[in-house]
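chain below, 236 aa
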Amino acid sequence: MNTLAIDTCDRRGSVAVRLNSLCAAIKTHSGEEYSSWLLPAVENSLLFAGENLADLNLLAVATGPGSFTGVRIGLCAVKAWAEVYGTKVVGVSRLEALAKCAAEDGWVAPTYDAHRGQIFAGLYRKVSGRLERAEHEAVIAPEDFLALVRHSTAGAPVQWPTLDSTLISGLQAWKDHQTTGSKLWECKPDLANAIGEIAEEKAIRGEFSDVLELDANYVRRSDAEIFWKGPAHRVG
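prediction:
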C-alpha cells in the first residue's frame, strides 16, 4: 500500500511516505509555518520515494487534537488531494498514534502539551497489538488526568508515552503511579509514520473516512472561538 501521512497538529509536525513500510519522512523545523512548509515537505518526500500524488493508494492525516490553524492546514490539503485524485482517506487521532509507541499490551495513556496548564490526553487498552479507546480524549490538567487513569485502571500498571514528559514526571501523583510499575517515556515527535501505519490498518478493515465529513478534533475550542463566544465547558 502506498501511503502519504501528514501530522500538522502542533509545531512538531511531520510527513511520511510509506510504500508498504516507511520509505521517506520529513519533520518540521522549529518555528516554520505550515503554510510554507507542508507542500515542499510532501513534494520532497514523494520525490525521495519515487512516487507522486496521483499514484498513492491512501492519504492519512492527523485530525487532532492540536492547534486550530495547524490541524486545519493538514486537513484542507488532504481533502483537496482526495478530490483531485480520488484517493481514499483515513483520519487518525494523534493521541492514538502516540499510543502506538507502547510496545506491550495493557493500559496506555498518551499525553502532550495543550498549553494553559493542560495536556491533551487519552486512555487506551492495547490487546493483541491493537489499540482500543477506553476513555474519551480530553484536554485536562495533568493532576486530574493522573487521578482519572488511576481510577479507570484500578491501579494497574500503565504505559505513558508522551511528547512532554516534564508535565507528568514532576508531579507528586506520578510517584504514586510509579509504585504500580507504570512507565513514562518521551517519544520522538515525528508521528506521521505511526499515523500512516494506523491508517493502513484501518484501510485493510475498510474503515475509510468520508472526505466531506472529515473534520478536526480539537477537544477544546480554539482561542478565536473562546475570545468571541465566551468560556467553553471542558470536553472530556
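The CA atoms of residues 157 and 179 lie 9 Å apart. Helices lie at 34-49, 68-85, 94-99, 142-152, 166-169, 172-178, 192-204, 223-229.
thats it, cya
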